[in-house]
Amino acid sequence: MEKWLGVALLGFMTICCQKNEPIWPCSDETGLYTLSDFPIGVAVEPNNLSFNFLYKKITQEQYNSLTPENIFKPAYLQPEPGLFYWEEADSLVAFAIRHQKRIHGHTLVWHQQLPIWMDTYSGDAAAFDSLMKWHIQTVMRHFKGKVLAWDVVNEAFEDDGSLRNSIWRQKIGDSYLEKAFVYAHEAVPEAELFYNDYSLESNATKRKAVLDFLNAMRQKGLTINGIGLQMHLNLYVDRLQIATALQDFAAQGYKIHLSEVDIALNPLGQYAQPPASLLQEQANLLGAVVLYYKQLPKKLQYGITFWGVGDAHSWIRFKDGRDDYPLLYDDNYQTKPAYCQLKELL
Ligand code: XIL
After folding, report:
1. Which of 271, 203, 195 minimizes the C-alpha distance to 226?
2. Are 55 and 79 in contact (CB under 8 A)?
3. How many CB atoms lie within 10 A of CB 202?
């Protein structure tokens, strides 16, 4: 049934999206979010918002949801034991409030971007448990009333569906995952709690493990509101799998956040400039994703967030040390075909 729905959607897309008029270039005078009935988000850094005029302008005009790309992570918020550094995070939150943007809290518990002291902490299980609890609750209470939803745990599962042997699991045991959600709910009961991970749209084994975990939590009466599918895509992704993934989570009633969307088109690093044909393929793929997303029940559409304002800021360039062009705006803050396609379909 799901498979046929996916096939029908693909057929629909083939007909609907093969328009004759070119979609690109297009104006970005009207913001994306003004055309959408679900939030459209972007990952941002407060420094860029302060010092980069075009970056700030695009953020303000195009998006109504902001995810702190780094500044809410433990390495930034708690650089020394018990020493919380709020300044930049607060400035981002103030920006969001001033411009009526939602902030999505990312992220409380992860195996990366931990301060060195946390990574090397030598306390026993109970001490590590209270450290986790203290971090989660201090951060959530600090932003109470301002940040209403959180990625409580990020990337806890491996590709084979087993639990990643992160420092949290090593020190506290498997139960850390559930405990993190319990502590988060205890800190701010009205907050919406998300689990966030990658490859859920392409790896059915991992997806099942995550769904089983979410369902087990819910059966115990614990709060878990939604799932973040990071969606770091490339042009070779299986579209039917994406449709199936969205349906799998929606069928269980979880809110769905496409939380870190980007579409790499230069995995081998051979293009010094993005070829026009690949930019068009990127636009088509994004179009397909958006149409699938729009089929979801409205109440489950938490939003779609792009992982960066423009290609110049993409984490892929820093992570892989190669040029790629995965976002809606190019290096000069000009819109790309993917932007125009998105605009057509919202
Ligand atoms: C990345 C940031 O974009 C980079 O700037 C940083 O150096 C490393 O982290 N999955 C996540 C995000 O959940 O937090 C990561 O963000 C990208 C992968």
Report:
1. 195
2. no
3. 19
